[in-house]
Amino acid sequence: MSAVPLNPTPAALPQERSVTLLGATGSIGSSTIDLIRRSPGRFRVEAVTAARNATALAALARELGAKFAAVADPACYEELKAALSGSGIEAAAGEDSLVEAASRPADWVMAAITGAASLRPTLAAAERGVIVGLANKECLVCAGTLFMRRAAAAGATVLPVDSEHNAVFQSLCAGTRADVKRIILTASGGPFRSWPLEAIRKATLEQALKHPNWSMGPKITIDSASMMNKGLEIIEAHHLFDAGPDEIDVLVHPQSIVHGGVEFVDGSMVAQIGPPDMRVPIAHCLAWPTRMNGATRLSFSQLANLTFEEPDEIRFPALRLAKAALRTGQGAPTVLNAANEIAVASFIDRKIGFAHIAALVEATLEASAARGVLREPVDVAEALAVDHTARLLARDLLPQIAAKAF
Ligand code: NAD
Ligand code: MG
Known about the structure:
By secondary structure, the chain is an alpha/beta fold. The protein contains 16 helices and 11 strands. The longest helix is centred in the C-terminal third of the chain and has 23 residues, at 380-402. The protein is globular. Bound molecules: nicotinamide-adenine-dinucleotide and magnesium ion (MG).
């Protein structure tokens, strides 16, 4: 039994849904809060978290009437406490405080912390058997098998927030899982979609941060430019929908209007379309199994031509690496994700060039295989241990990769 509810029986809904926002200050967090503001009386916010931005977090906690606010960085505790003084809102800091936030009694939890740092808090929410709006994909890439198993065992409902997976989720409800022939994820192709390989290799940080269609946090924006994002999303789809690598297709669709879909055995294709605005899939999950008023609409008359093309794994090697990691299985996706987090952070810090991102991921995967550390993580501690070892390896390999000329 999967934790993703494909054929739900709408349950009686509470008048007011209590929600916790993990990663409240980020792009997904802000879009979620925008929707909450637009539907007064429908949601009550229990807890909010951020990495470091204590002042912004405190302002959100006050505005939303949250009971608990937590920052991941312990050095920001005093700032958070001061900013919340007199509000009656409890302040906390450190990694364990994120788990505490996720453990508070909310019916619905948004998992929108970037990276594998999301794993422990998101799992803590799932293990309470509540609804988890899953925006974060890295926790599934890091430890998808055990995450989905534990979520299902706890009776949690995992709702895909990522736009492509939300599209597939909505499309899957048109039939039964057994009648699915193929799952389709679309990709914008990012800012370098039509660039030649040589130019992509030399792309600057500023060029990589300019996504043509979506406004997102920096890590996923870089992942979109390298197309690692789509690679991570193939692994995400594998875990969410219990689909093998051969059942998941990627199509480049530069307009980002058709977000994803499903082909059924009878030849019917069902896709979800909508504006390139994360508030659409977030609203679907926030109000699930009902619907709520959204923030943007799509007008067919304003649509340009919709075009589709095959992805190019030579110009975008990250896509090839992610697919290979999924086929290798065991700890390979965990290593891929960890190495990519180090590579993207190093690119953002201008320590490596754009081409070095995929090169560092590949070198870390090879070194991990050679050292025999590609074991399948059986529990969270093991997943985090494999993740940790891969990060150390990637850091060790960094100078040697950075010296490579492309
Ligand atoms: P963001 O950088 O804008 O925000 C991330 C949030 O998490 C912030 O609140 C930040 O303070 C917090 N955070 C970051 N690192 C943390 C850490 N180590 N510990 C605790 N908190 C931390 O990112 P985003 O674009 O909102 O993306 C969040 C997640 O959602 C990512 O996993 C991303 O892949 C996924 N996602 C985002 C989009 C999008 O449109 N932005 C779309 C699909 C999926
Ligand atoms: Mg996506």
